[in-house]
Amino acid sequence: MNSENLLEIEDLHVSVDGRGILHGLNLTLKPGETHVIFGPNGSGKTTLLMSIMGFPRYKVTQGRILFKGQDVTALPVDGRARLGIGISFQRPPVVRGVKTHDMVAACFRDKRPYEQKGAEVTQLAERANLLGFLERDINHGFSGGEIKRSEMLQLLAQNPDLALLDEPESGVDLENIALIGQLINELLDETHPACQQAHSGLIITHTGHILDYVNARTGYVLCAGMIMCEGDPRDILNSIKEKGYQECVACLKK
Amino acid sequence: MSEEVKEKSDKARAAAAKSAPFGNDINLAQYETCPPEIPVQIAPSEIRHQDRRKMLATGIMLDDPSQRSGTFVQFDNRPLHTSVAQEGIEVMATSQALAKYGWLGDYFWKAVAVDADKYTAHVELNNADGYFIRALPGAKTLFPLQACIYLSRARLIQDVHNIIIAEEGSELHIITGCATAGNEPGLHLGISEFYIKKGAKVTFSMIHSWSPEIEVRPRTGAIIEQDGLFLSNYVLMRPVQSIQLNPSAHCVGENATVRFNSVMVATPGSKIDAGSKAFLNAEGTRTEMIARAISTGGEIVSRGYIEGNVANCKGHLECRGLILGEAGFIHAIPELKGAKAGVDLSHEAAVGKIAEEEVEYLMARGLTRDEATATIIRGFLKVDIEGLPPMLNEELKKAVQASEQDIF
Ligand SMILES: Nc1ncnc2c1ncn2[C@@H]1O[C@H](COP(=O)(O)OP(=O)(O)OP(=O)(O)O)[C@@H](O)[C@H]1O
Ligand SMILES: [Mg+2]
Q1: Number of domains in chain A
Q2: Is A55 in Cβ contact with B365 (below 8 Å)?
Q3: Can you tell me the ipTM of this complex?
Q4: Tens digits of residue pLDDT in A89-102
Q5: Contact residues, B window 342-371, toward A, CB-based 8 Å cutoff
Q6: Min CA distance, B263 vs chain A (Å)?
Q7: DSSP H/E element including B52
Q8: Regarding beta strands A85-88 and A34-38, do their DSSP bridges make them parallel or antiparallel, or are they unpaired?
Q9: What does pTM read for this prediction?
Q10: CATH number at residue A70
């Protein structure tokens, strides 16, 4: 194990409801780096992020996950969150009676009394253009784009060392993509020089729009539960744009 | 004795052994029946500190009444204190009001049937006292009025008969707290009759805080005239032996509206049968019933009944139940009856456990399983009550929160 790595995934096999989805996946990510994941629908991208976060439905049948040098494979979700992993959901549930405000306040990792967080919550919400949503039940009646912003808002409060972002820009209009990009930027403190960046990201994208906002170092193509290609994210994106995922399928057959 | 009074007591006598349709049947002979005592007037400060503390948990503030427009306190069967701090608002013992106003007899047993069951009959036959609250035409309470019904004597049947009248265009906000002193057995019978005249508005927030040996049978009825509004809130979070209530509201005037909100928790050993009924009998009448029920081991039957008798009326009933304990149950019984084409009645009911997906969502933000569960429960119990003045809404939330801390 290399302790310089923030995240190390070794030979990861994951099954959901008894069905194997990921089949031997390896991935390493250093502090401050952001990697992006491409791959066709159903290839296992969401499954990978959910497994890193530790949701019990995603069963690791083989291999392990190391975070900050610690084997977290058996650690429950909340333990991983407190260690510094955060996730933005593709389809988060509605929680009736729990206001967006409460949710954001709960995300702060410190134990300050609730009242003292109010100003900060408001400030963050303003930046995510969600001021009017603080009094609403979380995700209740939120549009697709609003959900994305609300997920980013919560992550900003949580401030994780590793942010797992599941298609943060899909279904978001052009104007709001810029806003989401800016929020992700803040989350990963992209404005700092690379050597000072402590925050890392693992981002699923279909469109690649997010590459305009983050300085992604590595890209992967996930196909049928395995990593098929690894390389410069822009090269990969161009190749997918040109030839689709045919190449991956070809890779698979090799 | 006038003909009418005699007729009522005859009816009561005939119903003296009549069981109620719902709830376990109570043998009244098991408790002591005592006649009402003559009202006295003592200062709230003379009430024992520990009793005042119990009352505070039900929203009754005796130490600082500056946030209240009036106060009524009854211990067992004796009114102990009445005060009112506002022009146009009347607060007194029902017996005193009856002596003062010859017409008040007409309001007795009009919104609740005297022969509904043995409990209504007992209250009538025992000449129960209680509170009389009235807002004169156009008068509006600045602060809520508070009424406390306190059961302190072991084995007693507490008989209470309240009459609330909101005259035309008036507004009444009432907090009523019912509590008990110790852990002795007892039976509380409380009749509350509401008369809401044209364009008047009444909000009535009732917080119950009993103990595991107490049985409770409130009987509430409301008659709402044109453009009137009745908002009834009920909070029961503490243990009780058994409680059965099913207040009914008759919307008799055009555009009359009634809303029932209730939040109940059945701890192990508690038996709760709580519902509400609305009769929509005029054009444009509306009702909304929202019940949130949690069983941590006790039993809850959550009823709702809406009857639409005119074409243009609208009602919605919502009951959600969470089962958190190993024992106990929640039985939701929503009922709708439309007697005319053009009624718009609907209901939704859901009973289950906390969704695991929601717990995990919160855990992914760093909350422990227990914290996540508590947050979801708190949210579940947080009913924002539409139409309630913000201050009252806050107080109700505080009352719910205070009881939550003891239970979860
Ligand atoms: N509960 C489940 N039972 C069976 N199969 C499941 C279950 N959940 C996910 N899967 C399957 O696992 C595979 C991978 O799903 P996953 O959500 O990880 O794909 P994805 O790469 O994120 O796709 P998309 O681009 O559409 O979001 C899919 O074939 C999906 O149907
Ligand atoms: Mg996905």
Answers
A1: 1
A2: no
A3: 0.93
A4: 989 999 998 999 99
A5: 355, 357-358, 360-369, 371
A6: 13
A7: helix B49-56
A8: unpaired
A9: 0.84
A10: 3.40.50.300
